[in-house]
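assembly run, all chains below
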Amino acid sequence: EAEVAQSPRYKITEKSQAVAFWCDPISGHATLYWYRQILGQGPELLVQFQDESVVDDSQLPKDRFSAERLKGVDSTLKIQPAELGDSAMYLCASSLGHTTTLHFGNGTRLTVT
Amino acid sequence: GIQVEQSPPDLILQEGANSTLRCNFSDSVNNLQWFHQNPWGQLINLFYIPSGTKQNGRLSATTVATERYSLLYISSSQTTDSGVYFCAVEEGSRANSKLTFGKGITLSVRP
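ok done. output:
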């Protein structure tokens, strides 16, 4: 079964450093999502792409976070500079369309020291 | 935005027991999904069920959209069912609204 690929699986970085996460969605999935999950809570949407266009980035802290999906396939989420409060699981998901089944990757667990 | 409440917050079962997990939401929805997050953090989609009833093996789900709730049934529970179960909903009244997750139900199945 096709899967959403994410890397790295774990990342430890010092505050004020830059960090980047990569996601490759299931082939043919036009919609790609980045979620952040703080321990003990449900995932919260950071940004949603439809093909290469941003559909929703209302919850993305744009002063430090950026996301791109240049060719409408894989995507990169960047944090610069990282802060202690950014420690969380960063999850990528994809779906065929906007209101169809969501498939998640394994996530990147970020620890900022 | 739409509110999602899941209950109970925690559930402990003996292997072989049955359970019902509930998800209440505050507005009409056009998208409702149930997920299982295993102890390693992997989120697995269980059901896409904005209305009606579906079954997949020992799991089944029912969404009564008019009464704004969904139920996830687990029968003959196994230790591998342990983890956190999330309900996620998307408002039906707003264009391009996002999927909002509940806080989850932590299930522990003991051998």
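Chain A touches chain B at residues 41-45, 48, 55-56, 89, 91, 93, 98-104, 106-107, 109 (CB under 8 Å).

Residues 78 and 97 of chain A are 24 Å apart (CA to CA).

not gonna interpret more than that til we talk
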